[in-house]
Design a protein that fits this description.
Layout lengths: L2 H18 L6 H15 L4 E7 L5 E6 L2 H13 L3 H8 L3 E3 L10 H9 L4 E9 L2 E10 L7 H55 L3 H14 L4 H9 L4 E4 L2 E3 L3
Antiparallel strand pairs: 1-2, 1-5, 3-4, 4-5, 6-7
């Protein structure tokens, strides 16, 4: 692939990834597209992405081949290898010769060489001081990585990080919006319930609220649930200490 055609493919890839993130998107599909791009556009034999779960343990979420997935899983099982080191340090790790790695990386070395890989690079997925995973790049030939490929891989890793964090932010924002809407709806229902209790008991609105609140606490029920049952005529509170469920 010539430099011009590679540059063109790279631009097309970033445009595709940007389009993917405009609307509703599946973050796993985005990450799979990204590792496929590493394989197709860069001089990479295989690629994979590992993300940290809630407990900080890495998990394989996307890979270009079963071979790369097995190599990554071998690192996870042994808790040793370039991806583990990359994630722990939050720094780029390059291995020009897999056959020459330290003995503590033996499980990774044996798996990688068995699948025909001679060199590897690991790029951290990080935002400022937070590292959320690693992009694993495997090459058949030994030797240092191409600087252009490293720069592009770092950019891909940044896109992956932005995509993951953006998806999380959207999810959290949607949850917050739902919770806010539920709170507003509950407040309306509570106001209606206060009117019901004030009318049926002949008490002021403030006292009606205290009656409802006391009932909810006495029966260990959510205030909004008690209010909803009062409004729907599923519950009647005759007096502060006397509760009645209609037959």
């Amino acid at each position: 692939m010539t430099k011009t055609s590679r540059d063109s493919r790279l631009l097309q890839t970033f445009a595709m990834l940007a389009d993917t993130m405009v609307d509703d998107y599946d973050v796993v599909d985005l990450l799979q597209s990204l590792v496929d791009a590493c394989h197709d556009v860069l001089g990479i034999s295989a690629a994979g992405i590992l993300l940290a779960d809630d407990e900080g343990e890495l998990q394989v979420v996307a890979s270009t081949s079963e071979a790369s997935r097995l190599v990554e899983l071998m690192q996870l099982g042994a808790q040793a290898g370039p991806c583990i080191e990359c994630y722990r340090r939050g720094a780029f790790v390059s291995v020009a010769s897999i056959a020459s790695v330290p003995e503590e990386w033996g499980a990774f070395r044996d798996s990688a060489t068995a699948h025909g890989f001679g060199a590897t690079d690991a790029v951290p997925l990080r935002l400022r001081d937070t590292t959320i995973g690693a992009l694993n790049l495997l090459r058949e030939k030994e030797g240092p990585p191409d600087e252009f490929d490293v720069t592009a891989a770092r950019a891909f890793a940044d896109v992956a990080t932005i995509g993951i964090l953006h998806e999380r932010t959207l999810r959290e924002s949607e949850l917050l919006a739902r919770q806010l809407q539920q709170a507003l709806q509950s407040r309306v229902t509570i106001e209606q319930a206060k009117g019901v209790v004030a009318f049926t008991n002949g008490v002021p609105i403030d006292d009606a609220f205290q009656i409802i609140r006391a009932y909810a606490r006495r029966h260990q029920l959510p205030l909004s649930a008690v209010a909803a049952r009062l409004v729907n005529r599923e519950l009647r509170i005759d007096e502060p200490a006397t509760d009645h469920f209609p037959g």
